[in-house]
Structure formats: C-alpha cells, structure tokens
Amino acid sequence: MIERSSPVQRAFSRARQIGPRWVDSTDLLTCLLLFLLAVLATGLPFGIAVGLLGVMVIAAVWRPQAALLAVPATIPFAPLHAVIGGASFSVLELALVSAVGSVALREVWSCLRVRSLRHSLSRAGELVSRVAFAPLALALVVVGTASLGVVADPSHVRESLREWRWVVVEPIAYYVAALWLLQRPDGWRKLLGAWIGASVLAAMVCVTQWFSGGGLMVEGVRRLTGFYPHPNAAALALERPALLALAIGLASTGRARYVWGCSSAVIGLATALTFSRGALLALLLGTAAVLWTLHHRRWLYGLFLAGFLVAFFAVVAFPERLRAGVWADGEALRLAIWKSTLAMIGDRPLTGVGLDQFLYQYAPRYIDPAAWPERFTSHPHNLFLDAWVTFGTNGIFLLTSAVWLVVKTTRQRLVWPLDFAVGISLLGGFVHGLVDRGFFTPELSLSFWLAAVILDAPRTARSAAMETGGKPCECW
C-alpha cells in the first residue's frame, strides 16, 4: 500500500536538509556570545564580569544577527543567572537585551547616517501591515501595561513590574527585532536550530546528572530537574523543542531525518525523566498529531500501543507518583486549585488580580483545605484560568486570539515545513498548559513569540522567492 504524501512531506522532499549547509562567521560569533554568557553565569568578580559583559555588547553590536541567534539558545538555560555587582540577571535576559539593543542601535545609526526617519517609518508601517501577530503583540502590551494600575495588592506591584518586563515587553521586543533584521530563510532555520541544539545539550547534561544520582526524590520516583528548581518547569522547557525536532525529523528525508530524530529522542528522554504527567501527555498527543498529519498511520497505531504499555508499566512501577497530587481529602487537588481560582476570578472578573499576583491572593484568602499541599503555588495550573485571573476578561480575549492566529497561519501555509513543526510544538505546550503553566514565564513567553517569528517571517521577506503563492519555496 502506497502512503499519500502530505504538503509538508512534499515541501521537505525538495530540500536535502533543513539546517544551514555551512558554518559562517555569524555562527562562530553566536558561539562566542554563548560562551561569554556561560562564563558570566559562573560568578566572577565585578571587574571581570563587567569586562566580559562589555565584550559581549561589542560583539552583539558588531553582528546583531549573532545576538539574535544566541537568544533561543539560552531558553533551556533560563534559570542560570549572572551576578554583576549586587544585581543578578538571567542569562536569557542578558542575551535578549543585547540582541534587541544591537538591532535598535543599528537602526538608529542608519537613520543618523541618512539624516532621515522616513525609510524606517515606512518599513515599520509595512511590517505592521503584513505580519499576523502584530495586533496581538500590541494588544498584549496595552493590556499588560494597563493591568499594572489595577493590581489586587499594590504592595506587590514590584513583582508585577518584573513579570511585565519578563513575559510582555522583552519577548515582544525580540519578536519585532527578529522580524526587522532577519530577512532570509537561513536566519529562520538557524533560530530553531539554535533552540533545538541548545536543548539537546541541556538534555544531555540533565540526563547525565540524573543517572549520577541527581534530581528530586519525591513520590516514590527520582525526577529530573536539570537547571530548573522544579521537575515540572524542566518539562515545560524541554517538551516544545522535543516536539519541534520530532516534527522536522519525521517530515524530512535522508540524513536530516536521523539528525533531527536523534535530537528529539535525547530531549524527549530528558522530558520523560521529569515524570511530569502533563509533559508525557503533551509528547503523546503531539507525536500522534505529527504521525496523523504526515499519514504515518501504521506508526500511529504503534504509538498508541507503546503508550498503553508504558502507562501500564508506570501504574505498576510508580503508583505513588501517579496517585500523588491528584487526590487529597477525597477531592481532586487540581480541581481544588481551579475552584479557588474561580472564586478569585469571581471577585475581580473584569480586571483580574494582575501579573504575578496569584500567590499573594491565593494563600491568604482563597486556598481550599484540600489543596493545602499546594499552598505555595503561584499559578492556577490552567492556561485559560491563568490568563483570566491575570488580565481579567481581556486575558481570555488575548488567549483565544493567539490560538486562532496560530491555527490560521499554520493551516494557511502547511507547505512551509517550519510552520508545521512550530504548530506541533505549540500544540504540545497548549496541552500541557491545560494542567500547568502555558505562557507566564520568561522561557515560555519567549518560545511563543519565537514561534510567531517563524509563522510571520515569510510575510516580511524581501526576496521575491518567498512570494510563491502557496507553493513550497526553492530555498528549502
């Protein structure tokens, strides 16, 4: 029986590989920037740290493309911090600010050189009119900024300002900078390649740590934590690049299939060792979506058989882990948290409690006795409730708009291989977000806007080759 080929498969069959065919000076400079960030995270004396930071800024200004590529490579290492003097900065934030700042300085210098803003303003107007996610970005900035004025507890407005910077302003600034500067498919492929490559490295380190006896021993199992303070946070950071690499690998042919497939296997193993039930469900459903879309029906049947066997083994081998955190005092623990969240929303349905305000309202006023083991939770463990309790009804509008935009842009351009892969990774994040976090952390917010860059990038390309009327582009 001959299997049908999907548009994604046909698009990939015209390319010998998704990744770049050579390593250029931009890639080498990206590696240098990442090395400097890694050294800064080791904790250096103030003078040396400032000197290395200066070198990093100079390198970023000299080659902004390298700085943009360094940002997705820091997503798996987001919890690592560089201490400079008395201040502590996430390596993700340092990379992001350097990238956005270098692109902004480049454009300012261009305007000063020609002594005119006309070209930049014209290009900005064209960019806004062509990309699909620009209205969503603008709406999120407006809603997020307005929410600072109506926080439930003004004594914790500093925490709200920090989250506003981390999950609203900086990721959207990166989205704009990447679309502004990267105009060729090589740049878009390298963005995802940097994310997946760094995730493979992080996964290898985490798995090595786990086999060496590291991790967090709870509920009868030793759970992988890696660079994150909690196994669930590690799972949330790893599952999206795992599905991204899987989708690219299964839709590719030849040597590229094995490269991306092995990358997905390594990241997927690290994700599985977190023993996060939400992540395992996301990996299962995301893989099923890939196999269904690519018409690998036999593999799909094998997947469900393997999933059943793994679930049976987990029930027998790790009963405490499967039972823990699900039931408490005769009531589902997650349901108890959701019920408390709905009570919180009932008191402030229109405005919500504000960014990073959940913990300060939940523990003193709304906690259910059945959820006492989770009394220090800082989010409602559901993407929709998180958006609603944070931004009020505006949050639901933003979230449904984001889902609609992702589905629309992915369905319109399934002939674009990276669009398909990005859609699958977001599907996994959405599934896991129904029982955990989905957006309101720096790495999850940035991964969403990185996906938006890939989905919007063909609309901003200067090359006439990108205007193909829905046909696969030769550059793939």
Architecture overview:
The chain has one domain (123-476). It has 476 residues and is mostly helical. A hairpin with a 2-residue loop joins strand 5 (327-328) and strand 6. It has a two-stranded antiparallel sheet. 68% of the residues lie in helices and 4% in strands. The chain has 20 helices and six strands. The model is unreliable at 14-20, 326-331 and 462-476 (pLDDT under 50).
Low-pLDDT residue intervals, each spanning 5 or more residues = 14-20, 326-331, 462-476
Largest β sheet strand count, sense and barrel closure: 2 strands, antiparallel
Shape label: globular
- What structural class do you assign from the helix and strand content? mainly alpha
The proportion of strand residues reads under 5%
Adjacency order of strands in the biggest sheet: 1-2
Can you write the helix and strand succession as a string?
Answer: HHHHEEHHHHHEEHHHHHEEHHHHHH
Mean pLDDT: 82
As a percent range, the share of helical residues equals 55-70%
Number of H- or I-type helical stretches: 20
Number of strands: 6
Kindly report how far apart the N and C termini lie: 29 Å
C-alpha Rg (nearest Å): 22 Å
**How many domains is the backbone divided into?**
1
Short description:
68% of the residues lie in helices and 4% in strands. It is built from 20 helices and six strands.
